[in-house]
Write a structure and sequence with these properties.
The protein has 12 helices and 12 strands. It is an alpha/beta fold and 309 residues long. Strands 3-2-1-4-5-6-12-9 form an 8-stranded mixed β-sheet, sandwiched between helices. Strand 1, helix 1 and strand 2 form a beta-alpha-beta unit. Helix 1 runs parallel beside helix 11, helix 4 packs across helix 5 and helix 5 packs across helix 7.
């Protein structure tokens, strides 16, 4: 029997994070150990509140939630950009008013939870990040022995073969803390980058909105309203990209993705700050643990996502 996947999600809970969170919460073949909160689409405080409310909506108040870092390594504070507020709504969930969860986040800091979990579960743990990598990078910086950790990191972020979605070079999650992303990608950990190269190939549509709205669940109408808002404020047509849920799909079904094993890094200076690329210093070295997704069987990702809802 295949061992059950132990999973931690590190989220800046906006709309597509919420969809990924529901998918993870509804999975029966994995154990969601906890969710750590970061900044990005919203502030860390707002994202943690959204996480608690979404988990409550799907009956998963048993999953602990931990608040994490509130800003990037090189910054003193974080304020969401206007484009994030437009795409995800001022509250991060498309202006949808979720029933408020009756609990609060755990008192333990997200970084301490990550360190404790990575040490405790070792190679049986998978960490999926869908926002800036600051929590994980801080854990590695705090506990350098984690560089020899044998678990997996699946990171939604970056762009290798396509242009960025914030600048010509940079993707949104990476450019919010390039120093943190650089630390993680150069750490020697088993990191899989699920970037715009693949997340833009898979789509959610207004058909999904209609199906979720009438699926007979308590959470369906809320997710439908979130997705409708997201579609209207991203591609503005009948469909939108599957960004964050693609990272969860890759964590659970890597066979859906085509990957290249490469030593990866992030530019932290100049016009291409935030760019993810091959580390030229290691171009002659072999057997990197890090990988980048360059293609995806989009119908399988879309079918997998649809089967969970």
């Amino acid at each position: 029997m295949k061992p059950q996947t132990k999973l931690i999600l590190d989220l800046d809970t906006g709309i597509d994070d919420s969809i990924a969170l529901v998918c993870a919460a509804l999975q029966t073949d994995m154990h969601l150990l906890g969710v750590t909160g970061t900044y990005g689409n919203v502030t860390t405080e707002e994202g943690v509140r959204n996480t608690l409310d979404v988990l409550s909506l799907v009956g998963r108040d048993d999953v602990p939630v931990y608040a994490g870092c509130t800003h990037a390594f090189e910054e003193d504070a974080y304020l969401p950009e206007a484009v994030s507020r437009r795409i995800h709504g001022a509250n991060g969930v498309g202006q949808v008013v979720l029933p408020r969860a009756m609990r609060e986040a755990e008192s333990e800091h997200a970084v301490d939870f990550l360190i404790r979990s990575m040490v405790q579960y070792g190679s049986s743990l998978t960490l999926v990040t869908t926002g800036p990598c600051t929590n994980l990078a801080t854990a590695i910086r705090t506990e350098p022995s984690l560089r020899s950790w044998k678990g997996r990191v699946v990171m939604m972020g970056g762009a290798l073969t396509v242009r960025g979605n914030v600048t010509h070079f940079a993707e949104a999650n990476i450019i919010k803390d390039p120093e943190a992303a650089k630390l993680v990608l150069e750490s020697g950990l088993d990191v899989t980058m699920v970037g715009l190269d693949v997340t833009m190939r898979s789509r959610l549509t207004m058909d999904d909105v209609r199906r979720w709205r009438s699926n007979g669940t308590a959470y369906g109408p809320y997710l439908a309203d979130m997705l409708a808002y997201y579609i209207a404020n991203t591609l503005g047509s009948e469909e939108t990209y599957i960004h964050d849920p693609s990272a969860l799909a890759c964590a659970l079904h890597p066979e859906y993705f085509t990957m290249l094993a490469l030593f990866l890094t992030v530019e932290t200076e100049g016009v291409d700050r935030g760019r993810t690329l091959v580390d030229h210093r290691k171009i002659r070295e072999t057997d990197p643990l890090s990988k980048v997704c360059i293609d995806v069987d989009a119908p399988k990702v879309e079918s997998w996502l649809g089967s969970l809802m």
